[in-house]
Specification:
Layout: H1 3-45, H2 68-74, E1 78-83, E2 90-94, E3 117-119, E4 131-135, H3 154-158, E5 162-166, E6 170-183, H4 196-209, E7 223-229, E8 236-249
Parallel strand pairs: 2-3, 4-7
Antiparallel strand pairs: 1-2, 1-5, 3-4, 5-6, 6-8, 7-8
């Protein structure tokens, strides 16, 4: 091998190395900026919980009190707040004109690799479809939907079965009943069903796929499907499915 060829190989390798390093730095910078934005908005719109030792304060509820007036002023596409106690999941839920609008755009309409937690655009915004699908990115630092992979551990899942969707006038309370991996094009993402019987069959099939035995599988009603990438095969998704168990009216 000639000296010129060796020099050329060295130059190409160096450029490739530097480009890869720059990409990694940029990715971490983007994640830092995005996560900081979510932390800031959480501090701004989530009210401080009352002092539970104060006898004048009514019993505290497990979901956060959200300032929706501030959220509306930031972005009217914010339709609710998703919260799972004792986990990193506490984010606004967005709904755009398609499923790309908030894939790489944060709640404040700024481009960022973290994107947003967003509802499938095919769903109605009122969460009254039989299956409401909610997407979020799988991250290494457990932000967004990065912590959902921990639900494949039974002990972790059993302690975090409750999911809350906080809206302006009520709170939708869900209980997780299934955790599994599936193809991104699978029947899991079916939103509406032709009959109650077909929906009941779907629910039974989804519950049977769960890698952990948790919750109470429903036979009717409404569910949510939280969906994220698996971090490996790009055709696969990790999903958590939860049944609606209660709707609590909220006075504001």
């Amino acid at each position: 091998m000639s000296k010129k060829v060796r020099t050329l190989i060295f130059i190409v390798a160096t450029i490739t190395f530097l480009a890869s390093g720059a990409k990694i730095v940029w990715t971490y910078y983007q994640m830092h900026v995005g996560q900081s934005a979510y932390e800031n908005i959480s501090h701004e719109v989530i009210a401080e919980p009352p002092d539970e030792d104060d006898p004048e304060v009514p019993e505290h509820h497990p979901w956060p009190d959200i300032d929706f007036a501030t959220l509306d002023a930031i972005n009217p596409d914010i339709i609710a707040w998703l919260f799972i106690p004792d986990s990193p999941v506490s984010y606004p839920i967005l709904r755009g004109p398609d499923n790309n609008a908030y894939l790489r755009t944060t709640f404040d309409k700024k481009p960022n690799i973290l994107g947003s937690i967003f509802q499938d655009y095919r769903n109605d915004a009122d969460f009254q479809d039989q299956n409401t699908v909610i997407y979020g990115h799988n991250t290494r630092n457990d932000s967004m939907f990065g912590s959902l992979k921990k639900y494949k551990q039974l002990e972790y899942a059993e302690q975090r079965l409750d999911v809350y969707i906080v809206r302006k006038n009520d709170v939708l309370v869900y209980e997780i009943f299934a955790v599994y991996e599936t193809l991104a094009t699978s029947d899991t993402y079916t939103i509406r069903f032709e009959s109650e019987a077909s929906f009941a069959g779907y629910l039974k099939e989804m519950a049977a796929k769960s890698v952990v035995e948790i919750g109470s599988p429903p036979s009717a009603g409404h569910i949510i499907t939280l969906s994220t990438c698996t971090g490996g095969d790009q055709t696969m998704r990790l999903v958590l499915q939860a049944r609606l168990v209660e709707t609590v009216a909220v006075a504001r």
